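Morning!

This is the sequence you dropped in the shared folder:
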Amino acid sequence: MARFDESTGYLHITDLGRVASQFYIKYDTVEVFNQFLREAMTEADILSVVSQSSEFCQMKVRDEELTELDELHKMCEVPAAGGVENLHGKVNILLQSYISRVKVDSFSLVSDINYISDNSVRITRALFEVVLHKGWPLMAGRLLTMAKMLEHQLWHFESPLRQFSRLTQEILDKLDNSRLTIEKIRDMDAKEIGRMLRHEKMGKDIKAAAWQFPLLELEATVQPITRTVLRVKLSIIPDFK
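The structure's back. Tokens below.
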């Protein structure tokens, strides 16, 4: 994170050190980043790296939590490396439970999941900045998606309309199964949406929610000025209520 010049006595910060400072990342966690971060990683790999961060090292795996952790593990979307008996496995399971909005019963697990949720977004955002500096576009996209999933408690394959509390779980499940995008819902008639989901009364509410979802229209014009200079004019128009 820093370079020390013995001849002059000067200390120079690196990009990695700057990111760690900005996001309050411990040096032990940076060591984990250096050890496990690669140019191509799956969601399971990313969750594994985040769960091994030293920010969670003061947590414990308690015997009375193992049964519930086993049940939560079965509901995980991706395999949780480490399993229920290891600390990083427990953190991984609770991270996925948090994204999935699974109800946790044990008081100690509720406390742990709140602590994990407070720190995981910051760590994931730091990882995003690290790979940006490394010039890894594929990983940058995946880490940004992971950060947004943690912020919104929403898997990327689920309907973004899950953020609207007025829509029932039954309707949200039907939206996921039908794979209706925000754009498709906007183009459809309220009655058509209701018939498709077999709940005609909700068609109007779903369409209204789709129009409240923030989308933007982008219009760009490019004009050459010289052989090496372009003028780019970008218009950003809000397309939502």
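Headline: The CA atoms of residues 99 and 153 lie 4 Å apart.

More detail when I'm at my desk.
O.
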